[in-house]
Amino acid sequence: MERPIIYAKNLTKRFGNFTAVDAISFEVGKGEIFGFLGANGAGKTTAIKMLIGLWKPTEGQAMVAGYDVYKQPEEIKRNIGYMSQRFSLYEDLTVQENIRFYAGIYGLSNQSIREKTDELIVKLGLEQVQNERIASLPLGWKQKLAFSVAIIHDPKIVFLDEPTGGVDPITRRQFWDLIYEASHKGITVFVTTHYMDEAEYCDRVSMMVDGRIEALDKPGALKVHYGVESMHDVFVKLARPEVE
Amino acid sequence: MRIIQFLVRKEFLQIFRNKGMLPIIFIMPVIQLVVLANAANFEIENLKLFFIDKDQSTLSRLLRSKMDGSNYFLLSGFGLSSQDGATALDRNQADLVIEIPSGFEKKLVRENTQKIQLVVNAIDGTKGALANFYALEVISQFNQEIRQDFQAINKVGVSPFNRLQVEYSHWFNPDLNYKTFMVPGILVLLVTMIGAFLSAMNIVREKEIGTIEQLNVTPIKKYQFITGKLLPFLILGLVELTIGFIIAKVVFDIPFVGSIFLIYGFAVIYLTLVLGLGLFISTFTETQQQAMFITWFFLVIFILMGGLFTAIENMPLWAQRITLFNPVRYFIEVVRMVMLKGSGLMDIKWHALIVFLYAVGVNGLAIYRYRKTV
Amino acid sequence: MKRFLAFVRKEFYHIFRDKRTLVILFGMPVAQIMLFGYAITNEIKDAKIAILDKSKDHLSKRLSEKILSSGYFVLEDYLNAEHEAEGIFQEGSVKMVLIIGEDFDENLQQNHTSHIQLLADATDPNTANTLINYTASIIRSFQSELNDHRSLPLTITPEVRMLYNPNLKSVFLFVPGLITVILMLVSAMMTSISITREKETGTMEVLLASPMQPLQVILAKVVPYLLLSFVNALAILILGYYVFGVPINGSLILLLLECILFILMALSLGILISTVTHTQQTALLISLMGLMLPTILLSGFIFPIENMPWILQMISHIIPAKWFIIVVKSIMLKGVGIGYFWKETLILVGFTLFFVILSVKKFNIRLA
Question: What is the pTM assigned to this prediction?
Fold first, then answer.
């Protein structure tokens, strides 16, 4: 197997006495769709923020796209895309302006900005609203656009933090089609979610409970291991062992 | 460089799209300049004079009409007893009370000397002092006139009196137009306020809505980010200044003696400093409210100690030293010097140097404090 | 009642949690009164002047010395020729040039008259005027020295009494205004922002859905600010009194009552603002531009209203701060009783009622 594109060993983040992420270790291979699962408050967002160079870890090691999270956060940023839990496009700018802006700050040439913008707008079916402000779009459209903008510079990895929060099931399905498409292009996808049905779409998933990774494997293997029918049941078993 | 271009374009799009902010940026300053220039007026005229004449003689009436006829005083009332004067002062109906004692004229002629009472409302010390000064001047003039008349009539021979003739002239502002003094200062105030508030709230706003995180995961360099935030407001500030100059010229007819380029040149350095200060504030605040309050706090101090309303030379030495750290002070001085007196680059070289170093320092600090990784 | 107190407590938590705002809330009045008390003054001393002495005789030197030893002026430079004046003004620090005419002593001996010229930098007209006035009166007293204090026929001697503020301290003028501005800031601005914030974050609806009366909800929100403002006002009074000797000549009780009246007025204004705004930012801007600036500029705090053009004087009538400042000055400095400012007090009561009625109306419309 070639070198993992994300590598974490005993990665830890503490806030005062509170340990948000407790010595997690895992590897993600190139081109994988890696599901990072857990309940709200399990530490998923904190872990992501350490991996993308927004927060410094308290302890442990991590390499992303071949760069060290302590020493080379800026190199990491050049090679990744990120879509946060909070909405990250400018509400007061139009669809076109948002695309152009983000493409611009990633240093794309004018020529390719134009091409990419047209391509994206056609692909997402936003021709009618390309000059509308983001604020006026439905949430599902915004999410799809935010994802497309996050990978506009063809990063090696894209980190998605709860990308489908609050969206209806049909739009979620469409969203996952976009994720597959990106994966086919060779982009590694690191996605957090608390929708357990989405876990089924991932190549491998990790289950996070109270800051620790409690399980990590292919969804099928996990179900077999815990002897249950769905990822949801796997999660219930892990998260509330006392219920048994 | 291209990245900065994209950042700048984005800021402009946002500024011009915010229908609530546009009037605040462009109309408020105009209104403020016009209102402030008219309101901020220490010119003292039409002081309210209350005249108590217990003598009711020719001389006392002559003094009354002399006071009334001067430009400084407006006869607001007259009475016969001291109590009337005290009440008028308490009721705010008088700034100054003059009381002529009974037997004033007779005594003056007979004993050659006579006292009169002046009571000044001194709550506003400056106004009180001036009221006093003007009153004494009118009285002394009156005194001289009646003396001359008296000597002419009585043909009294007097040994020659040594006189020192004082002439005075007011340079740069011969009409003592207060607006000439205030408008350049208010211009500085407006440019400073708009610049500081907008820049202080800007980064915080991105923090509040969450877009800052998205920017922080891009490979933007810190200096690019800060420059991208600074440039749009710098341009806005210069536009604001231009509007201000036009109003100053057209509405208030303020003279412009010096080089306009010199002021613009200085304004660029100064604005960079003010905006850097705002950006610095926004790097350590969490909400727009906090940013606004902190900015307000510093602006109030800067403005009060900037020499806009009260001259810096009047402050105690320690306070004057503190004003050396006050950026507003330098710009106010420069605008007044260049606009009204025509001072040149050599006259303001120290101002420019200090503000330049200050700007470098503050912006360096803002770049340093702005953390992409925490 | 218990529920109400719990609400008030919650509001206090909000206020005390935000340390930065709190520091500013209490730091601002203290810093400002210190500035106004110590640093900001119109009193002139040590103004820089330059002297051009064309005679350089015994008498002209005596005059220069007399002027320089007055305490108002310090000598920056001696000039050699008149044309140097412009340059020295342009450099910026010299405010006045004193020119003593040629043959000063000799002219006086022979013709009994000599010439003095004063050039003032009138970019600041006030300073220029004051400097000239000071100098002129020094020269006048020099002149009477020259005449050996000869008594002249018909001499009127004015006796001057400076009422209310005998030492002409600027801080006397500023304390009443400062109290007003701070009360306005804390009461009107903070309440409007705090209520709008609850609207913005959606917690307002939760509160209104609780069994509390809407009126109680609002009251609970403003009580802490009432207390805060009151403490702030007291702090300024105490600092003014002990540090700067600003007296309270009238009744302290009356003063405090008037303060409470003004705070109530400001609070109801704050509530009114919050009923018409939806975001904190708008509330902030309305408060700053619509409240603070007029309060500072058009209330007579710094600039005398009488000097303004009539339209601004008209506008100043609808600024509550103007009336309150008159009341505070009357009580503190003039020491007069309610008989002298019952009209102003009634106007403040009127404002309060007006704002309360208007905001209750707005509030009900919103609920309905």
Answer: 0.81
